Amino acid sequence: MDNIVKFFFQRSETDSEIRIELKTAPFYLLLTMIAGWLAISFILKSNEAGSIFLPVLIGFIMLRFFALIKAQKEVLAAMKDRRLTTQGSKFSFNNPFIYIIKKKVDDTKLEK
């Protein structure tokens, strides 16, 4: 399962921040799969091929959803605490979309 998760995003951590990089290739793969399904179903008018391709598409969407759910929970929690910044673009291979989460500072460290 860990290799599947790495296909969709990569998480790295330092002392001060957590970086979650969303991979661009799965996004374009999803768009290609949707375009392929539409082409098979509506342009070629092949219901049999479309009915085989649609479960594969739905399976990929569900796999992506469950692979990203842990990261999304972390991002939403950081967003509530106003510790989240973003950079990059969801559409760029050279500048991928990255969530940057500042880590919480422990109160015990502040008191010392």
Structural class: alpha+beta
Number of helices: 4
Strand order of the largest sheet: 1-2-4-3
The total strand number stands at: 4
Radius of gyration: 19 Å
How would you characterize the largest beta sheet? 4 strands, antiparallel
Low-pLDDT runs of 5+ residues are: none
| Shape category | elongated
Beta-strand content: 15-25%
SSE series: HEEHHEEH
Q: Between the first and last Cα atoms, what is the distance in angstroms?
A: 41 Å
Task: Describe this entry's structure for a reader.
Helix content is 58%, strand content 18%. It is of the alpha+beta class and 112 residues long. The protein has a four-stranded antiparallel β-sheet.
Give keywords:
58% helix
List the helices and strands and how they pair.
Layout: H1 2-8, E1 9-13, E2 17-22, H2 25-43, H3 47-80, E3 84-87, E4 98-102, H4 107-111
Antiparallel strand pairs: 1-2, 2-4, 3-4
Short description:
Helix content is 58%, strand content 18%. Strand 1 (9-13) and strand 2 (17-22) form a beta hairpin. The relative contact order is 0.18.
